[in-house]
């Protein structure tokens, strides 16, 4: 039976370290500043953004939130990003995705200064990670947090391990694969067109599921002793809890995978809390760089 990886605890450790370092940086006269921008009223995005702003305050950051109407013209959003890029009190800019359809998300992301791109989505930071310049990159928060959990579990030397990443998104799958490659894993990225996905997953010492499909990865897809990182957060009906009730599940059938894995992240309480913690860590790094 697997060790259950306590992402909530690791995230709390990261936040405690960031909070301490923020106090030290304040002695130099620098307070990390994080600007979070949300366009429209997507309920899930509102919850995420509120918790990012709240956590930034708890770390001792200067935390600002810009809430724009759903019909905000793209030019207005680009103008706001221009102001934030130029504001010396702001070290991190996060534009919550998804954006409304009339806005070109790519154009907005690329307008963020790479020096303040704490999401790690600009071409400069993607390029740094892709060329193995991990130390100088801002790494997207969910894969960065997943990597920390993997290293805590398996140690820092992942050399030669076989890693399978299921999902090829720009936010999780691709940067996760690049991080594992930079750590000398043998990496395969699987996606919806992959043939015989169960057999491929069974080759993985490290299996990362990031597809957004509830409980897709079954127990018999998991190699005995593998480290399983479940990035999925899916809300599904839970009639057993009462009419209309729901519950959260990951992309992995936890009960089944638990029987075979060496270690596995739960949902909730695994990767989820790490995402916000790594956003705080990235913002602190940005402020430290600005402080010189
Ligand atoms: N929407 C879902 N995940 C993320 C994320 O990591 N960053 C941003 N900006 N938006 C998201």
UniProtKB/TrEMBL annotation:
Binding site for NADP(+): 167-169, 233
Catalytic reaction annotation: (6R)-5,10-methenyltetrahydrofolate + H2O = (6R)-10-formyltetrahydrofolate + H(+); (6R)-5,10-methylene-5,6,7,8-tetrahydrofolate + NADP(+) = (6R)-5,10-methenyltetrahydrofolate + NADPH
A Pfam family recorded for this sequence: THF_DHG_CYH
Keyword line: Amino-acid biosynthesis, Histidine biosynthesis, Hydrolase, Methionine biosynthesis, Multifunctional enzyme, NADP, One-carbon metabolism, Oxidoreductase, Purine biosynthesis
Domain Tetrahydrofolate dehydrogenase/cyclohydrolase NAD(P)-binding: from-to ranges: 140-289
CDD domains membership: NAD_bind_m-THF_DH_Cyclohyd (cd01080)
Pathway, per record: One-carbon metabolism; tetrahydrofolate interconversion
SUPFAM superfamilies: Aminoacid dehydrogenase-like, N-terminal domain, NAD(P)-binding Rossmann-fold domains
Assembly and interaction partners: Homodimer.
Function: Catalyzes the oxidation of 5,10-methylenetetrahydrofolate to 5,10-methenyltetrahydrofolate and then the hydrolysis of 5,10-methenyltetrahydrofolate to 10-formyltetrahydrofolate.
Name under which the protein is recorded: Bifunctional protein FolD
Gene, per the UniProt record: folD
